[in-house]
């Protein structure tokens, strides 16, 4: 909604997409799905009570953020930010930033620069040597250029692309999808990968799998049946 400006009053109802960042001034059981902004899978209850201090984005219960969806209740809010000034807009603008160069790309660029320097030095040396030996100027130039073309790895891009494609296929067999193929080389150097995207990479639920004994504890006492009795019913 391009006609909305800061200071406007917006009425929210079930199923509505919040058109701007709003400071809520009235709510009736209002709940918003903020997964598109915070990544959380569960809806957040909203109220008009001000949030003290520098609260995190997911703790702004007195605000309705642009792009979120009203799942329950209704409310009224005052527009405080629109477009690129909203939290959702900042995320969208951040996607236009050029992606950082990986170590693999940096190393490949350094290797290409090294080959270029070698080609220039070798071509110049051969050209000068041919002239000193009394060869015609045109023949010397053509011969040195032929040498330069011969030492240029013309199939290097194809070899690199084929290698990265093979790596992506191996990862796909392990149920891993890589958006940027050039990141495969860096991904292979990882020892530990920690992620936190509740509801996106996880199911948003907790269940008991198994118990791991620690020093001084008997593994039999930590069996699923015993743990279920001590901790209550399974989640």
Automatic annotation (TrEMBL):
The chain crosses the membrane at residues 114-134, 140-165. It is a multi-pass membrane protein. It holds the Pfam family E1-E2_ATPase. Keywords: Membrane, Transmembrane, Transmembrane helix. Its main location: membrane. It is found in: Cell membrane. Residues 4-92 form the P-type ATPase A domain. It comes from the Bacteria. InterPro entries: ATPase_P-typ_cyto_dom_N, ATPase_P-typ_P_site, ATPase_P-typ_TM_dom_sf, ATPase_P-typ_transduc_dom_A_sf, ATPase_P-type_domA, HAD_sf, P_typ_ATPase. NCBIfam families: ATPase_P-type. This is HAD-IC family P-type ATPase. It comes from Microbacterium elymi.
């Amino acid at each position: 909604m391009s006609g909305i400006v800061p200071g406007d009053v917006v009425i929210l109802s079930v199923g509505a997409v919040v058109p701007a960042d709003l400071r809520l001034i009235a709510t009736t059981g209002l709940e918003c799905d903020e997964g598109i902004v915070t990544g959380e899978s569960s809806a957040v209850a909203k109220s008009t009570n001000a949030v003290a201090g520098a609260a995190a984005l997911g703790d702004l219960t007195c605000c309705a953020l642009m792009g979120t969806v009203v799942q329950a209740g209704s409310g009224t809010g005052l527009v405080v930010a629109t477009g690129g000034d909203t939290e959702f807009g900042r995320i969208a603008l951040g996607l236009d930033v050029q992606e950082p160069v990986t170590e693999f790309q940096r190393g490949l660029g350094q290797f290409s620069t090294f080959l270029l320097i070698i080609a220039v030095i070798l071509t110049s040396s051969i050209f000068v040597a041919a002239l000193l030996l009394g060869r015609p100027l045109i023949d010397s130039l053509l011969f040195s250029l032929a040498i330069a073309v011969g030492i240029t790895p013309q199939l290097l891009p194809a070899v690199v692309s084929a290698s990265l494609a093979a790596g992506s296929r191996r990862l796909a067999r392990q149920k891993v999808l890589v958006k940027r193929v050039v990141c495969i080389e860096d991904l292979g150097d990882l020892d530990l990968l920690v992620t936190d995207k509740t509801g996106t990479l996880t199911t948003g639920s907790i269940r008991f799998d198994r118990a791991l004994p620690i020093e001084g504890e008997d593994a039999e006492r930590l069996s699923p049946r015993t743990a279920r009795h001590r901790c209550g019913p399974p989640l």
